[in-house]
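Consider the tokenized backbone below.
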């Protein structure tokens, strides 16, 4: 049995126990004083080419042994029953501060030659070119960059991963991403990486081996009739997070020690909350789950969610399809049921790579401004989709993924200036108090400001008001 340990930024250690025998097929556990010698607490499962048991431990000295089919095998020197594991103290650097997030869709944030009309084609520049634009992101006042997938893949969106441990060669590979991280961190930007763990590509080596290797077969939902997929897309077979959990932990450990500051879990509501908790606990970094429906069952599983529940009602309110009273009921319900730290970490937004562009959906730049005022002043972490700051248009996927308009970005504009102002003023705030609502408005106190959001314009054509309270 081989033991590997990697430092975690919070002073803990990622520890991986590995069995490399190809013929291993018995029930196996690592037992030790870190579990009170309780059998079964840390089982080995298939993690690709080996069997792994992954856990997180604080610095200290531990004893452990390997148990195979109820038989303890000597692990120490000269046949000693137990082996020792010494985990030294780790200097703990300052954690990344919370802050507003800017979403980058790598293939469209910077296009070669301005892009083409093939919205499902590959047209993006590599990460070395993209990182040259990080100064622009920081100039808007953002503190985090959320990168949609950058892994080896056959598609432009890269949600069909063929290798989770390698950055797509078209983006410059792992070395280019290392340089990207170095530049981002030097500018004061933290980087959050998208993890598509709900499914893989049908070209992923595990799925290609599933027909002949029962261990890989168990990673997917396969039977004689076929296999489960994401959204009925045959090229994206659904992954079984329970049987593949150690492989997923290895991915998290790899990119965490590489320098990534946080993660977003794609299609998280298609994975059991207990698996999300296991992954989030192992990561020890912000873990945000993509959740469209009720966020309540995820409140203890992850750091926060993409708050699509609020987004749906906010957009309906701004489009006058719902009243302020209906929106306020959802806001009040979330504040009542969700832990304040969870709600504060959850993302608020007007659009993403999966929705219509904010301006296309609302049809009015003044309503976009009102939506942004809400996103930045209600309880949550604001997130802005690239190009929304310059009024880019776009309908449903893939029309919402057009190449970034850099001419407009260089010129700025009222929405970009509003975002700069909101970014500079933003602070984490759990003490937001909802004061009231009527047919066309909601109003609340956020920090030392009273915020009013309406779906009817005032005489100046504005849909929001932020008033400093004395």
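A designed sequence for it:
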């Amino acid at each position: 049995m081989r033991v590997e340990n990697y430092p975690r930024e919070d002073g803990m250690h990622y520890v991986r126990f590995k069995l490399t025998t190809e013929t291993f097929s018995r029930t196996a556990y690592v037992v030790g004083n870190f579990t009170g010698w309780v059998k079964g607490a840390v089982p080995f499962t298939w993690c690709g080419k080996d069997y792994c048991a992954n856990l997180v431990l604080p610095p200290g000295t531990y004893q452990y042994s390997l148990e195979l089919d109820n038989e303890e095998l000597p692990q120490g020197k000269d046949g000693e029953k137990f082996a020792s594991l010494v985990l030294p103290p780790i200097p703990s650097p300052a954690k990344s501060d919370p802050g507003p997030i800017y979403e980058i869709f790598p293939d469209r944030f910077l296009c070669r030659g301005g892009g083409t009309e093939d919205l499902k084609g590959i047209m993006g520049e590599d990460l070395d070119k993209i990182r040259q634009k990080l100064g622009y992101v920081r100039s808007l006042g953002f503190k985090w960059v959320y990168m949609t997938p950058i892994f080896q893949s056959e598609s432009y969106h890269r949600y069909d991963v063929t290798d989770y441990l390698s950055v797509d060669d078209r983006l410059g590979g792992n070395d280019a991403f290392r340089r990207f991280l170095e530049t981002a961190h030097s500018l004061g930007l933290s980087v959050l990486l998208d993890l598509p763990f709900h499914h893989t590509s049908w070209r992923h080596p595990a799925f290609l081996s599933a027909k002949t290797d029962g261990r890989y077969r168990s990673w997917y939902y396969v039977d004689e009739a076929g296999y489960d997929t994401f959204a009925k897309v045959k090229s994206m077979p659904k992954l079984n997070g329970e049987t593949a959990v150690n492989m997923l932990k290895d991915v998290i450990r790899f990119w965490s020690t590489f320098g990534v500051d946080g993660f977003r879990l794609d299609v998280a509501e298609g994975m059991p909350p207990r698996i999300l908790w296991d992954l989030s606990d192992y990561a020890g970094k912000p873990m945000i789950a993509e959740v469209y429906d009720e966020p309540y069952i995820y409140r203890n599983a992850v750091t926060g969610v993409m708050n699509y529940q609020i987004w749906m009602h906010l957009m309906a309110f701004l489009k006058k399809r719902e009243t302020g009273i209906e929106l306020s009921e959802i806001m009040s319900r979330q504040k009542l049921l969700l832990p304040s730290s969870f709600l504060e970490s959850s993302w608020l937004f007007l659009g993403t790579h999966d929705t219509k562009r904010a301006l296309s959906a609302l049809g009015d730049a003044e309503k976009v401004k009102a939506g942004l005022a809400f996103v930045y002043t209600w309880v949550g972490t604001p997130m802005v989709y690239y190009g929304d700051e310059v009024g880019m248009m776009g309908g449903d996927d893939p029309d919402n993924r057009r190449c970034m308009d850099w001419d407009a970005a260089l010129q700025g504009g009222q929405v970009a200036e509003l975002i700069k102002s909101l970014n500079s003023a933003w602070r984490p705030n759990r003490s937001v108090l909802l004061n009231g609502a009527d047919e066309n408005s909601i109003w609340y106190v956020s920090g030392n400001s009273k915020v009013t959001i309406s779906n009817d314009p005032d005489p100046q054509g504005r849909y929001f008001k932020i008033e400093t309270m004395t």
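DSSP finds 15 helices and 26 strands in the chain.
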